[in-house]
Amino acid sequence: MNERNTALKFAENNYNKFQKTLTEFLEIPSISTSAENQNAMRLAAIFVENYLQSIGIKETKILETAGHPAVFGNYASKKKNAPTILVYGHYDVQPPDPIDLWESPPFSPEQRGDYLYGRGASDMKGQISASLAAVESILQNGDPHLNIKFIYEGEEEIGSPNLPPILKEYADLLKCDVVLNPDAGMISPNTPTIVYGLRGLAYFELKIFGPSHDLHSGLFGGIVQNPAQVLCDLISGMKDQDGIIQLDGYYDDVIELSENEKLELSRLPIRDSDLLDQTGVRQLWGEKGFTSIERTGARPTLDVNGMLSGFTGEGSKTVIPAWAMAKISMRLVPNQDPEKVHQQLRRYITENVPDTVTWDLRKFAGGRATIANTKQPGVIALAQALQSVWGTKPVFKREGGSIPVVSEMQKTIGTDSVLTGFGLPNDNIHSPNERLHLPTWKKGILALIHFFYNFAEFYEN
Ligand SMILES: [Zn+2]
């Protein structure tokens, strides 16, 4: 029996043990956003470090940050010039509220049927345990001719504020040929999925100032311009009836989809009827000339996230508001620069705002979109691994959301991430009754074993 088969056998014989360790991990309430859970955060970091040690990762380190610590691990191959995979993960979880909607307590994991219930089961302690189970199965076999590094942060659910400094400080330590990020999910249990693109984000707050204070609309209505109206006029001019964004130069840097990519995206088993169900809208709407999958994956957007102005209480009050505010965000696609977009928005307002008001535009943190080269060894190794276990080609997906850590890794350590994961759309992540589909999780462990060996073989000669 070759090493790969021995490792796969080992995993199959040890699912119960893996699940037991995962259960202990899930019992730690590592809620990063809550001040009361500082101790639990530390415990979870130590748990991860001990876990790494127990599977043969001798070199481990807790990396202190201004917030919650990160955990580093390193398995150094005896083979000279062996390739290096950096495995990323986050050990923090979302708060479990509202707690009374949980059928079993969020931090007392319970198996019911094929599912393991508990906060973090899917996002992403289950994915961490799948990665570590795969590494354990490989290492008990001897040296895989592969360096495997680990970085586990404790602040993903609060926007990874202290990850960039860590990546910078330890850039040499974290050097690798590819990052494995198993924090993405699958489209369905039978559709292994590789995410190769993520949108970026630019986020703004626009404020329009009119009179020095709210005015009586009877005394002053008709002689002053209403800032709420001005704000609405500005916003309505930002996009036309076909959903095309009107900021000058906005699409200049957008890379058009190739025919091949369009074909690949059209293979994704996501139908408009599913999207209608998920959103509850009467009809879908978006940029003319593109499918829904293209619109969310490969086209940029501009959306109002919230508005505030004047009197919004019960009943009526006749005022002309002193100011009006809108939060506006844009999801960006590869090659778009958040700062350039910021300047385009600023120019649009300058050119279109009337002289009757003053305005202020604030820019919040955002990030660039990322796209991985799907021809690189890491992606090919993963695609083959998923196919070996599921017996079907994985689909390649561009995700509409943003994962800041992916662009941060690209920026600071200069490496692409391959994103996958074995969570399912109905795992209730961030919601009550979060769960992990155990049969898919077990397949995931086997797929990762294949992935590590596939990747090592690429560099074998
Ligand atoms: Zn996550």
In short:
The chain is of the alpha+beta class. The protein has helices at about 5-15, 15-25, 40-55, 125-140, 165-170, 215-220, 225-235, 260-265, 270-280, 290-295, 340-350, 375-390, 405-410, 440-460, and strands at about 60-65, 70-75, 85-90, 110, 115, 145-155, 180, 195-200, 200-210, 215, 305-310, 320, 325-330, 360-365, 370, 395-400, 415-420, 435.
Q: Numbering strands along the chain, what is their spatial order in the largest sheet?
A: 1-2-6-3-7-17
The helix-and-strand class reads alpha+beta
Bound molecules: zinc ion
**Major β-sheet, in short?**
6 strands, mixed
Q: What is the overall number of helices?
A: 14
| Percent in strands | 15-25%
Molecular structure report:
The chain is α+β, with helices and mostly antiparallel strands. The protein folds into two domains: 3-198 and 369-458, Zn peptidases (Aminopeptidase, 3-Layer(aba) Sandwich), CATH 3.40.630.10; 200-254 and 300-364, Alpha-Beta Plaits (2-Layer Sandwich). 34% of the residues lie in helices and 21% in strands. The strands form five sheets. The chain has a six-stranded mixed beta sheet, with helices on both faces. A hairpin with a 2-residue loop joins strand 4 (110-112) and strand 5. Helix 2 runs antiparallel to helix 4 (125-139) and helix 4 packs across helix 14 (438-458). It is elongated. It starts with a helix and ends with a helix. The structure holds zinc ion. The site of zinc ion has 5 residues, from loops. Zinc ion (ZN) is lined by residues 90, 123-124, 156, 183.
